[in-house]
Structure formats: structure tokens, C-alpha cells
Amino acid sequence: MSASTDEVAERGRTHEAPPPRRRQFTKRTSLTILAYLTPAFIFVIIFTYYPLVVGGQMAFRKWSLYDLTSTPFIGLENFTTLIANPLFSKVMLNSLVWVVASLVVQFLIGFMLALGLRKKFRFRGVYQAMIFYPWAVSGFLIGILFRWMFNSEFGVFNDMLMRTGVSAKPIPWLANPDLALVAVIVANVWYGVAFFAIMILAALQSVPHELHEAAAIDGAGRWRTLTRVTIPTIRTTLVLTVLLRVIWIFNFPDIIYGMTGGGPGNQTQIATTWMIQFTQQGDYGLASALGFIVMGVLVVFTGVYLTLLTRERKP
Amino acid sequence: MRKKLLTTVAAVSALALSLTGCSGSGGGGDDKSDGGDVTITMVESLTNPARTELLKGMLSEFETENPGIKVQLISPPTEQADQKIQQMLQSGSGVDVLEVRDLTVGPFSNNTWLYDMSGDLKSWEGLDKLTDQAKTVAVGEDGKSYYVPYGFYGLSLFYRTDMVKEAGFDGAPKSWDDLITQAAKIQDPTKNKYGYAFRGGKNSAGQVLSILQAYNADNLDVTNAYKVTSGKTIFSTPESQTAIDRYIDLFKTGSPESSVSWGYSEMVQAFTNGSTAFLLQDPEVIAVVNDSTLTADQWGVAPNPVGPTGKAAWPMATAGWGVAEASKHKPEAVKLVQWLSGDISTKFAKENSLVPILKSAGEDEFFKTGPWAAYVEMTSQPETWISVTEPRDVAWWTEWMQKSETDLQQVLLGKMSTADMLKSWDTFWTEKWNG
């Protein structure tokens, strides 16, 4: 998939596209096209936009599950309540650390794994399956598994650290305010590495062998080939996978919810786990307002990220 | 011709899809099935596979005794069950009998989703067979009956008889002071041995309130155990300050450091795997411990620890069966609720480790012996273990549980003082009550 994206992008850069020819549809053809499109439109309206509008308007109402007989319009009060909450800035900071730390480590490990898996070797398929496996597991389940693995008294991590003499006493991973965020990020890295490995491997396999041969003839070493040939060729895939992962990690409360529930003392609380707390309280107004804020942050990020990268690419 | 055919197919699919999207109401167990039988739908909330099997068996007994009524049981996964039930109630169809919890009765009844069974229960002979506690829940203070409880959950002290003996004590701790002393003596982290399975994680307020109520037992408002008789919150008294400081002592001297984040599963696991000696938990843990590697002579259940005046409160959580306001088969649904709340409820309580709702269960050998003896002791001495009600049906209960969990963790991590925590809790409840 990424290969074709690259090729299309490449063609777009090197060839002048012919001017588009305006095609006239007959009324009958237009109706046919419309009839084909209608199911998709209806589907998207019912299952995407209707819930979005219904959910979205809750952000401007007092919408408590406890009393649905009165849901008055309260303007921006839910937003101001959220922003005035002392926890707001901490949650946003935690979200930033959660996204950046998870993303950087996932990307680096995923990239290295993809490079390692690019060349054929015995049992490559088995290795690939083992690396991709975490991607198939539910995030909440991963959270619960890691919660037990990081358990201070009966967890496998502490057991290994103590048996190997690295630590003399059990480390309270999830009870220590400084270590809890590290623990949830480790779990997220384990989960997310697979995505980068899959996507980057697919992109790497589409890099023409001739390019590497040409680089070798020109005397380029491994590092130079990687940075000057391989990475520029798969750039589009890298840009898109990073963008997708930022959005997904930001919107991914499963692991934290399963491992710490946002604790101890809100040390691992991120925007989406906080949103879950509001829904559990039955306050869908606040939850929806927070959803809007999250969406706003991501829209701004996507805009800035793509603008910067596009500007960088222009000659 | 081919084009015309394709256009027609596309148009028909569009129409079908839009109709599918518009439908969705109706359905559920509100129809008469073949042969004129009435089929009612029942939804459970605190689902687990063993309990679902038990319920299915009970329902087939009901169907045999009541020809003409069929019951379809829906068992959503526990985590999503209350939300599923809420959606079903909101849509106004698909449910006749449902599991109502003390936590959900408030929102469900406020939104007029529950049928008031008070008229039906007046003539029901089973009402007088209920214990006083069960009757108080079945018929609320306002005279309304939104659900009949099937059992109660109340805290009691699980303890390791062997570890207590090894540490040189005669028996289980009777008071909170005893518990703190014994836990500290037993604690030896180098041997992976700990005194008390402290709850610092999810839903930690239950255990905190247990010690606060024991220390305030003489002045407690029994109708609302979050208040004292002066009308102020329980968090405002000097006794509570002493109690919470003792509770933090218990954490520091007798509990694992990591228990700051322990929830239900970690606590129970720590007790059943033999690393902690004490656990304050609900009776459903009896079944879990019975299935563990601990042998019967290694553990026991003692009554709730008492406070300095020799008394303790015994708040109970509960759940039961109610009828949906939108049900089209209310007489049959009420009949099922009454049947489930009859003699069969003792079987349900036994197999689910619940405090039973029938007076007659007190005579049952099962509840008089072994781990259940502590519960009989507590019910038979109401002046020592005072039966109290907690405001679990308030709209802000979940918010409170989340706040109390976070604040307690801040205290345990040394980022907040106990005095500030109590003050913050006092303000929280006072403001909520004042609206």
C-alpha cells in the first residue's frame, strides 16, 4: 500500500499531469452514480455524523445521567469548568509525555525490527508473526497483564530484577508516582512497536534493490545508504505512520485504564482516562467537552505537522 | 438493461439500509411466543459464569412452576452491564426484569425507568419473611419499591489463623488497634510476608469509612453513616482525625508499600497466595478463598474490627431485582421478582456468598458455622455492630469514589496531609448536600 503511495507521489513529482477532461454525465448516469453513493452516505450519516452531532451537543448542556429529565443548554460552562480544574494542566502534560515518550521509543524499536526483518533468513515468517502478535491483543487486556507483571510482590519484573541481583528489594512500580508513568509507557511501547514494524517493513520491501546497488557502487556505507537512500524513499510512509500513531496514542486510554486507572494520585491520568472518569460519574457533558478539546488538540497538531512537512519538501 | 438492473439494486439497498437505520425500537422479550406463552426478558448486572448458570437453573424451575411464562436471561459482561441496562431502559424496550443495584437505583428511578412495585408488594406474603434490613431496602423511606434485594454484601475481617498464632497472638484482632498491632508484628518484607492487604486503589473508600465509622460509632447517624448526629459530616470530627492517622499507621507499619495502588484483585490475591495475614472484604471472598490453596484450618473470618468504644458500624451494599416501567408484562415480571425473593433466595445467597434476605436463613446450619459464623455474630449483636445506611444512591457517588481514591493515594505518597484530606472531604460532602 505504501509502495503505491510512494510511486504515485514520485510520478507526481517527475511528470506533468495532463489537464483534466471534463466529462458530461447524462441525467441517467448521474442518477446511477447517486444511487450507488446513497447507501454509503446513509451509512456514514447514521453511524458517524449523527452520533457525533448528538454527542457533541452534550458538551454544551448539563447532561447528567442521574437526571435526564432536564438537560439545559449551558453554553461553554463545561469547557470553563474543565479548564479551571487544577487537574487540567497536569492531565495535558501527562498526555504529552505519554504520547512523545511512547511514540519515540516505539518508532525507534519498530524501525530497527523492520530493518532486521527486511532480508530473508530462516524462520523469518515466525519472527514476523511473533513481533506482530501484540497488535492483535486488546489494549485493556494488555493493561491487565502488565498490571500483574509490574506487581511489586508477585510480578515477574521484580522477580527477575531480584533474582539477577539488580534490585535488592521489590520496586513498587505502580505505586511509585515517578515510576508509574514509566511502567505504562513500557506497556504501550510493547504494544505499539508492532505497528511501526509492520508499516515500515512493508515500505522497506518496496524500495528498489537497484537503488541500494547504485549507492554501493558510489561507495556509500550502510549509514549513508540508510539516511540518504532508504529513509528518503520511504518518507511518506514514515510521515503518515507517525501522524496516525500520535492520534491513536493520544486517544488510547485502554492500557492506562487497565494498569493504573490514572493513579496513583492522578500521576498517570491522561485526557482520555479522565474522560472515562466523567462518563463513569454519569457526567456526559464534561466528558463530551473534554472530547472536543482532545479533538481540537489533534486537529491543530495534524494541521501544523502536515504544513511543516509539506513546506520542508518544497524546493 | 444491465445498467437499469444495477440502478434498481443500488436503490433497493439504499432503501433497505435507511429502513434498518430507522428501526431498532420494539423487539426484546415483549412478544407472545408460539403457544400463547408470555416471554419476559431478564437482564443481570453482576455477571459471572457460575452465577449465570445458577440463575438459568433457577429460572427453569420458575418456568416449570409457572406454565405460560418463559424467561429469557441476558447476561452482559459485568464491566459493561450497567451501561447496557441503562441503554435498554432508555430505549424503552427489551427488558422486563432487571438487576438493580444500590448504586443504580438513584439514576434509574429518577429517570422514571423503574416500575414502583409498592402496590404489588403490599399483598405479597413474602414481605414479612424478609429480614428488617431487606424490608427497609424493598420498601424505601418514601414508600416506593423499586427493587427487592437478593442479598447483602458487608465487610468482615478475613485472617490467617496460622500467621496470627506464629506471631504469638491468641486469636483474630477484635479492634482496629489490635489489627494495627498484629499486622505490624507479622510484617516482614524480606520474607515477602505482610500484615494487612491495604486498599489504596479503586473503591478504597469502603475500608476507610469502616475505620472512621468505628471511631465515630457512638455519634453516628445510622440513617446516613456519612453524617454524625450533630448533622455535620463524619469527616469533620476529631475522632475521624485520630482514626485516619491510625489507618495511615496501618499502611506504614503493616502493609506492602505497593498497596497504594491495590484494588480488589490484588488484595484478594495477596491473601489467598499467603503473603498477607489480614483482609477486610465482602463475603463473596469466602468462595474465592475456599477455591484457593489455603486449607480450612489456615484461615477464618472475624467480625468487623471495633473502635475505641467497643463498637463498629456495619454498612451493607446490596442489589436486587426490579421491573422496568416500560415492560408490557408487568404482572408476570412482578411474579418473577417475588419468586426470586422467596425461598429460592437463600440458595442464591449460599452459592454467591451473600448475607441472605430471609429471616429463616438464620436457622440454616450453613450460615451458623465456619466462615459465616462471624456474620451471624454481627447480626445477633446489633448494639455492637450497628446496622447503618450509606448514601450510595447519590448522584455523585462515583465522583466521590474517584476523589477519595486519588486523595488517599496523595496522602499515602506523602503529598497531602490527613487533615487536609478530611477537610477536603468535609467540604465536598457539605457542598453536595447543600446543592
UniProtKB/TrEMBL annotation, chain A:
<feature type="transmembrane region" description="Helical">
    <location>
        <begin position="284"/>
        <end position="308"/>
    </location>
</feature>
<dbReference type="Pfam" id="PF00528">
    <property type="entry name" value="BPD_transp_1"/>
</dbReference>
<protein>
    <submittedName>
        <fullName>Sugar ABC transporter permease</fullName>
    </submittedName>
</protein>
<dbReference type="GO" id="GO:0005886">
    <property type="term" value="C:plasma membrane"/>
</dbReference>
<keyword id="KW-0813">Transport</keyword>
<feature type="domain" description="ABC transmembrane type-1">
    <location>
        <begin position="92"/>
        <end position="305"/>
    </location>
</feature>
<dbReference type="InterPro" id="IPR000515">
    <property type="entry name" value="MetI-like"/>
</dbReference>
<feature type="compositionally biased region" description="Basic and acidic residues">
    <location>
        <begin position="8"/>
        <end position="19"/>
    </location>
</feature>
<feature type="transmembrane region" description="Helical">
    <location>
        <begin position="225"/>
        <end position="250"/>
    </location>
</feature>
<comment type="similarity">
    <text>Belongs to the binding-protein-dependent transport system permease family.</text>
</comment>
<feature type="transmembrane region" description="Helical">
    <location>
        <begin position="96"/>
        <end position="117"/>
    </location>
</feature>
<feature type="transmembrane region" description="Helical">
    <location>
        <begin position="31"/>
        <end position="52"/>
    </location>
</feature>
<keyword id="KW-0812">Transmembrane</keyword>
<keyword id="KW-1003">Cell membrane</keyword>
<keyword id="KW-1133">Transmembrane helix</keyword>
<feature type="transmembrane region" description="Helical">
    <location>
        <begin position="179"/>
        <end position="204"/>
    </location>
</feature>
<keyword id="KW-0472">Membrane</keyword>
<feature type="transmembrane region" description="Helical">
    <location>
        <begin position="129"/>
        <end position="150"/>
    </location>
</feature>
<dbReference type="GO" id="GO:0055085">
    <property type="term" value="P:transmembrane transport"/>
</dbReference>
<dbReference type="InterPro" id="IPR035906">
    <property type="entry name" value="MetI-like_sf"/>
</dbReference>
<feature type="region of interest" description="Disordered">
    <location>
        <begin position="1"/>
        <end position="21"/>
    </location>
</feature>
TrEMBL record, chain B:
<protein>
    <submittedName>
        <fullName>Sugar ABC transporter substrate-binding protein</fullName>
    </submittedName>
</protein>
<feature type="signal peptide">
    <location>
        <begin position="1"/>
        <end position="25"/>
    </location>
</feature>
<dbReference type="InterPro" id="IPR050490">
    <property type="entry name" value="Bact_solute-bd_prot1"/>
</dbReference>
<comment type="similarity">
    <text>Belongs to the bacterial solute-binding protein 1 family.</text>
</comment>
<keyword id="KW-0732">Signal</keyword>
<dbReference type="InterPro" id="IPR006059">
    <property type="entry name" value="SBP"/>
</dbReference>
<dbReference type="Pfam" id="PF01547">
    <property type="entry name" value="SBP_bac_1"/>
</dbReference>
<keyword id="KW-0813">Transport</keyword>
